[in-house]
C-alpha cells in the first residue's frame, strides 16, 4: 500500500450533490500536467427525497416524533384511567366505564361548574380534558411563518368568543355551541393567510378549567383530596422539555458559542459591516468608500430604523439621482431589526432606546431562551415595568432567527474597531484574529473523518473521546454535504492507497451543493422566470424568422436591457439605434464590457450588445480606456445608466481596479470563497498542502476550449445524461492553474486584437499536449462508474399509515384506512366502504375534468361536513401488530424491499423471494431456505448492485435501479452504469432501462461485481 507519492501527480475533483468526478494528471518537474493517469466517477444518493428535496433522515425523524407523541398520549390516557379508578372517579368494571361514554362530556364540563356531579361523572369530565388538553406554546420553536401563528390567532378568537358569550371555561362554551348545533371540534378552514381554526384552546385555558371544576366540586360536597388533585393534574398537563439546540462555535474564539442574530450587538455588527463595505458610485461611474462622517450618519440612521432604500440614503447624503451605490442590487439595506421590532409603540416604545446595550441584551436573551410565555410576561411586567398588553406583544415579537459566525465577545471587539472606520479585515487583524481560515500542512497519511479537521467550522460535537467520531466532533447539518464529504474521504483514501499522496489537488463544488434550501428555492423561482422569458423569446424569434438558439435568446435579453422603449434601444458606444431585425445580424454582436482576456468573465453580467464596428474599435480595453478621452464619453455614460446596476460600474475609469480589488483576475478564478468550497479545500489540506478550488463558470469554457465535450457528444456540448461527464468536468478542472490561465489570457488578448470572433464564440483552442483529446477519450471510455451500494439496514420499515382489517363475504381480508376525501384518488373513492358517501362523491365528480377533482372534493367536504372516509385497500405484504397487552391490533404494510434472493430448486425451477427491511432487521430466515432439498442461491440482488453481463461478446456493466418482486413482474429494473439524468426519465425510456426476470437471470448468467470508489472490479459469489 503506497502512502508517499510514487510520482508527482495532480488530483482534480468535481464534487456534486450525488456524485464525484475525478481525474489524475502526471506532472513534470515544473508541476505542469503531461499525461492522464486515470479518471473515474463515484455516484451516491444525496439523502434527500427527490420530489420534495427534504432530508430523508428529517422526514423519518418527524414521523418518529409523531409516533412517539401518539404512544405517549396512549400511555398518559391509560395512566390517567388507572388513577381515576384509584380515587373512585371511574368504575373498575370495564362495561360500566364503557357505559359512561354515552354521557355528553361537554354537558358534564359545563354542569360541573355549578352542580354537584356523581364521582364517575367528574371522572368522565376530567378524562375528556385529557383528550383535548389544548395547545402549549413553546416560544423557542416558533417562527413567524409556522403553524403556531395560525393556532395563536384561532386561540385569541376563541377567547373573544368566550368573553362575548359571558362563559367561564372552554367546556361551558363548547356545550353552548353543541346545543346550537354548531361545530365543537378543531377543524382548519381556509388556506394560506386566511387559514384558521374556528375553535382552538390554549393549554392554560384547559388547566384553568380543570382547577375550576375541582374547586367547584369540592365546594359542592365532592371531596377531591389535594393528593388526588395534584396527581391527576400532573398526569394530564405534564410536558417534556425540548432538547437544547446545538449551537456552532465562534470562528474567532472556538471555545465560545456563536451569538444569536437577534442580539443588539449582532445587529450593530451587521450594520457596521454594511456601512464599511458600501461604496458611492459617481456619475462618471468611479466609486469611493463612505467618509467617516457618512459612515457615522448612515450607521445611526440604520440603527434606528428597520430598513432604508437607496433613495432615502441618497437624500440623507444630499446626493441626486445621478449617484448610485455598490449594494443597490439589494433594493434596500437592513437596519436594526431587533430594535425596530421592540421599539414599536405596542411594545417598549421610546423606552427601548433609553436602555443600555446590556439591558437590551438581557431582554432579548429572555425572549430567546425562556420557553414559557407566562414566565416571559411575568418577568417583563415585574422587572421592566410594562403593561399586560405590552408584555403579551413583546413576548410574541418576531426577532431575527439564526446565529452569527462569531460569539458575543468577538462581536463587541470587532464592532469597536469598525466604529473607528476600520474594515472587517482590519478589525480582525487589530484583534489578533489573523488566521481564521487555517489549513493543515498535508502531513496526515490519510483523510480522517471530516469534522476532525473542520471542528472550528462545525463546533457542535460533544468533545468526549468515548463517543463516536460523529458525536465527538459533530457534523455539518446539511445532509447532502455531510454525505458528500464522507464519500470524498473514501474516494481520496482509495486513490492514496493506489497512487500515494497527491502533489496538488484542484476542486470544484457543484452549484447545488453550495446552496442552502432557501437559496435553492430562489434559484428554482429564477429558473421558472427564465423559462417564461425563454418562451417569450422563442415566440419573438419565430415571428422574425430567426432560429431559437441560446445565442439569439441571450442577444434578446441583452437588447432589452438597453432601454424600456424598443424604438430607443441603441448601442452604448456609438448611440445608433439597434432594431430587433438588426440585432440578429452580422452588424450587431454581444461584447465583453470588461475584456475577457483580463477578467475571464464570460457571464451575461459582463456583456452587452453593440455594433460590430464599435467592438472592433474597443479591442481588449475597458470602455473608459477605449473611449474615455473622446467627447462622446459623457454620452456613453448617460446611455450606460439604462443598463442594470451590476453592469454600470464596468464603465468607470477605475473599473479594472475595482474588479481586481480583492484578488487578481487569475487569483479570482483559482479561488471559490463559498462556505462549502472553503471547508472542502481545508479538509483536503490534511493530506496535501497545495490545494485550490476553482470558479465553476470557467470549467465549461475549458471543456469547450480543449474539445472535451466532444468525447461523449458529437456537437461539443455537455451530455448530462452520461455519468462520465463528471469525470470530463474533473479533467477540465485539473487543467486550471496559474500557467494555464495566463496562456488563456495571452491568447484571448491576441484574439481581441486580431480575431475578436474567436473570443466572442469561445473558439479558443487550448490543447495541453499533442494527443490530449485521444488520451482523454481513452480514459473516459474505460471508466466503470462506481455506484454506492445500498446494503444497510437503516430505512423505513412500514408505510406511514396503520390500517384496520375487515373480512368480506368471501372470507378475503381487506385493509381499511381513513383518509381525507380531498386527497383521495378516484380508485380510492370507488373503494369507500360507506355506500351512501361513495355514491354522493361519485355523483359530484360525474362528468367533470380530472384536473378539477381536488377542488370539487374540497367543496364537497365543506358543504357536507364529511371530511374523511374509510376505504378498502387490497394489500398482501402486511403485518398484524398487537398492542395494549394484545387487546388491540392494527395492520402495517411493510415499506420497502432490502433485497431479492433468486434461487434454483433441484428440479431446475428458478424463483425469487423478496426480503423486506423489516425481515432483515429481525434476522428472519427467508422461506426459500426452509425448502427441502435446499435450493441453490443464484444471486442476491440489492438496489444499486452492479451486474456484469456478456452481450454479443462484450462485457457490459449494469446497475439495479428497482426491485419489482411478485406477480406478474418477478424482475429487477437495470440500466448501464453510465446512464445519468433523472431517474423518472430513465424508467420511462425503453432505450435506457431493461427488465430482467428471474428466468432470464439463469439464461444470461450475470456476474455480480463490486466496483469500489475508484472503479476497480471484484467479482462476487452472489
UniProtKB/TrEMBL annotation:
Q: What is its EC number?
A: 3.1.-.-
Q: Where does Mg(2+) 2 bind?
A: 14, 512, 726
Q: Which cofactor does it need?
A: Mg(2+)
Q: So where's the catalytic machinery, residue-wise?
A: 14 (for ruvc-like nuclease domain), 592 (proton acceptor for hnh nuclease domain)
- HAMAP family, alphabetically? Cas9
Q: What does this protein do?
A: CRISPR (clustered regularly interspaced short palindromic repeat) is an adaptive immune system that provides protection against mobile genetic elements (viruses, transposable elements and conjugative plasmids). CRISPR clusters contain spacers, sequences complementary to antecedent mobile elements, and target invading nucleic acids. CRISPR clusters are transcribed and processed into CRISPR RNA (crRNA). In type II CRISPR systems correct processing of pre-crRNA requires a trans-encoded small RNA (tracrRNA), endogenous ribonuclease 3 (rnc) and this protein.
Protein family: Belongs to the CRISPR-associated Cas9 family.
| Annotated domain remarks | Has 2 endonuclease domains. The discontinuous RuvC-like domain cleaves the target DNA noncomplementary to crRNA while the HNH nuclease domain cleaves the target DNA complementary to crRNA.
What's the protein name?
CRISPR-associated endonuclease Cas9
What species does this protein belong to? Flexistipes sinusarabici
